[in-house]
Automatic annotation (TrEMBL):
<feature type="transmembrane region" description="Helical">
    <location>
        <begin position="74"/>
        <end position="95"/>
    </location>
</feature>
<feature type="transmembrane region" description="Helical">
    <location>
        <begin position="351"/>
        <end position="371"/>
    </location>
</feature>
<dbReference type="Pfam" id="PF00654">
    <property type="entry name" value="Voltage_CLC"/>
</dbReference>
<dbReference type="GO" id="GO:0005254">
    <property type="term" value="F:chloride channel activity"/>
</dbReference>
<feature type="transmembrane region" description="Helical">
    <location>
        <begin position="291"/>
        <end position="309"/>
    </location>
</feature>
<keyword id="KW-0407">Ion channel</keyword>
<dbReference type="InterPro" id="IPR014743">
    <property type="entry name" value="Cl-channel_core"/>
</dbReference>
<feature type="transmembrane region" description="Helical">
    <location>
        <begin position="125"/>
        <end position="147"/>
    </location>
</feature>
<feature type="transmembrane region" description="Helical">
    <location>
        <begin position="414"/>
        <end position="434"/>
    </location>
</feature>
<feature type="transmembrane region" description="Helical">
    <location>
        <begin position="383"/>
        <end position="408"/>
    </location>
</feature>
<keyword id="KW-0472">Membrane</keyword>
<keyword id="KW-0406">Ion transport</keyword>
<keyword id="KW-0812">Transmembrane</keyword>
<dbReference type="InterPro" id="IPR001807">
    <property type="entry name" value="ClC"/>
</dbReference>
<protein>
    <submittedName>
        <fullName>Chloride channel protein</fullName>
    </submittedName>
</protein>
<keyword id="KW-1133">Transmembrane helix</keyword>
<feature type="transmembrane region" description="Helical">
    <location>
        <begin position="215"/>
        <end position="239"/>
    </location>
</feature>
Length: 475
């Protein structure tokens, strides 16, 4: 359906709502506020539906990869490189900005939301990019990719909010384009993890430097609507359930903080590895060279998958659940380095896929390994595992409060909140010694330059609300 026809239908529906309901029930000030917020409510509803569908497809793809790897392990040497090439080809030929996590693209889009550059955000956050993002990540996961869906969900959510905000007809109130992308990012994270507070903190800490007063109502309502929509289909669930957490005093608390710091160091080193591989990939300039790199990444991961089995592939969420609820105390030490390599290969192949969930699983494995090293009883390991998850994620994304609040909401373990927060701050301090900037900060600048260098889209005549949005974005 042409965009003009979609806009026309949306405008007619909005006009009907205004004439038959809003003008009859509300004052002019409240009416304008509702009309201004209505696109965000629609986008939040669509984001929740998208997050549910994406989660279902992603879970199916992960289960399929486990099944074929268990039944016929040698298939890894065919299916894994094939999936890597398929995922990369979709990105390379259809939407280059759909590669990787998606969060740096949202950050770059927010930075480019000024009147001079806003039209460039379509390169990063167009609906075509969103569609390729989903398909590419699912293809990669079917072949055993070590990726997550949370970063991609955030990018797709921002694309939805951008598209809906553009539909606001001429003469109607419109919110800032920048706030639209910020709100989309918050709604995406909240719907992906079922963590509304995490979505709000993520916006404040990672996505924007705008003062909270400018977007608090939009973010709060978007998080609530997207989260409730997801819960209608998935139920009121916790991402990781209710693990039993004990907190012995004294030296145990010191050990837990040591684990957080070491995991923060591990996360920072992982980010440096990803950046190094990204720079290395740039030396491949021809299509055969790039395809060869992707095939090599797939073959190395195939070797790991064949040797280790399903534990070496996928999001890592089943591993976290095993460590928290069915820990036998003998998790193999090689799992952490194997998944570390798998994460790096999957991300660096050029396909779509995030590092949020995989970073949490890497932290869980590293924390359990440290607990084994110090002979901590299995019954007391969960606190160290949770703190380590926070530490590793903080080392990668450099958002300590977001990491702590996410793990808190995923497990509902409020008794551990102080350890989680302190562990996050220690991990942040240690990670800053490796690199003062996060992985996302580095990649954000790369995507911003890429968007500015891309062919400029045609510039149609601007409408009154677009001029008003330009004024607000420039403020």
């Amino acid at each position: 359906m042409p965009e003009s026809e979609i806009t026309s239908r949306y405008a007619r529906a909005l006009a009907w709502l205004d004439q038959h309901l809003l003008r009859q029930l509300y004052t002019e000030q409240v009416r304008r506020l509702i009309l201004r917020s209505f696109p965000f409510w629609v986008a939040s509803l669509l984001t929740g539906l998208m997050a549910v569908g994406y989660e279902k497809v992603f879970s199916w793809a992960e289960q399929v990869s486990f099944t074929w790897l268990q039944q016929l392990p040698p298939l890894a040497f065919v299916l894994t490189p094939l999936a890597f090439v398929g995922s990369w080809a979709l990105v390379h030929f259809l939407a280059p900005a759909s590669r990787g996590s998606g969060i740096p693209q949202v950050m770059a889009g927010i930075d480019l939301s000024s009147p001079a550059h806003y039209r460039r955000t379509g390169y990063l956050l167009g609906l075509r990019v969103a569609a390729v993002k989903i398909v590419s990540s699912v293809v990669l996961l079917l072949g055993g990719g070590v990726i997550g869906r949370e970063g991609p969900t955030i990018q797709v959510a921002a694309a939805i909010f951008r598209a809906i905000n553009k539909l606001q007809p001429a003469g109607w109130p419109r919110l800032s384009r920048q706030i639209a992308l910020v709100t989309g990012g918050a709604a995406g994270l909240a719907a992906a993890f079922n963590t509304p507070l995490g979505g709000i903190v993520f916006v404040v800490e990672e996505l924007t430097q705008i003062h909270l007063s400018r977007f608090r109502m939009a973010v709060f309502t978007a998080v609530i609507i997207a989260g409730l929509t997801a819960q209608q289909f998935l139920g009121s669930y916790l991402y990781l359930g209710y693990p039993r957490v004990t907190s012995p005093g004294g030296w145990f608390q010191v050990l837990a903080m040591m684990a957080a710091a070491l995991c923060g160091l591990g996360g920072a080193l992982f980010a440096k590895v990803l950046l190094g591989l990204s720079r290395y990939r740039k030396r491949f300039t021809t299509l055969p060279q790039r395809a060869g790199w992707v095939v090599c990444c797939g073959l190395v991961l195939a070797c790991l998958a064949y040797a280790i089995g399903p534990a070496a592939v996928g999001t890592g969420k089943p591993l976290i659940n095993t460590l928290l609820f069915q820990n036998n105390g003998h998790t193999p030490a090689y799992l952490f380095p194997a998944r570390f390599v798998g994460m790096a290969l999957s991300y660096s192949s050029g396909g779509a896929g995030g590092v949020f969930a995989t970073s949490l699983s890497a932290g869980a494995l590293l924390g359990d390994g440290l607990a084994q090293l110090f002979n901590i009883a299995v019954a007391d390991r969960n606190l160290i595992i949770l703190v380590s998850m926070v530490g590793f994620l903080t080392g990668v994304v450099r958002s300590p409060f977001t990491a702590a609040i996410l793990v808190l909401e995923m497990t509902d373990r409020h008794s551990a909140i102080f350890q989680l927060l302190l562990g996050a701050l220690l991990a942040q301090a240690v990670a800053a010694l490796i690199d003062p900037h996060s992985l996302y900060e580095h990649l954000k600048h790369e995507f911003a330059r890429e968007a500015l260098d891309a062919p400029a889209p045609s510039r149609p005549t601007r409408t009154v609300p677009e001029v008003a949005a330009d004024v607000e974005d420039a403020a």
